[in-house]
Design a protein that fits this description.
Blueprint (H helix, E strand, L loop, with lengths): L10 E3 H8 L3 H10 L5 E2 L5 E4 H16 L4 H18 L7 H22 L1
Antiparallel strand pairs: 1-3, 2-3
Helix pairs in contact: 3-4
Amino acid sequence: MAVPEIPDKFYFKIGEVSSLLGVKPYVVRFWETEFDLTPAKNRSKHRVYKKHEVVTLLEIKKLLYDERFTIEGAQKKLKGRLKEKSKQLGLNLQDKTHRDVLRKVKKDLEKIREMLRN
């Protein structure tokens, strides 16, 4: 399967994503629930996907359609790849102190985002 060229954009609507993937929008929504993806919502409350989420969805499609994994098998494979990526970044997220620091940073960033919205 040829990997489609992903346009250089910040956000993609579900129709654009389903077109890039070559699947129906309901399939994308199903994969969201099965693979714990949570796309953002725009002001109109429509799903919008970031580029890294589109890349993840392309990876899911490859695992399911090309490599013939089951949903459960693809979930395990993706989790394994995420662990591998975190090791490459030098983060051992199993360490409780690192997770606590990251949670605090996330909360601080959310507070900043709220302040910027107001």
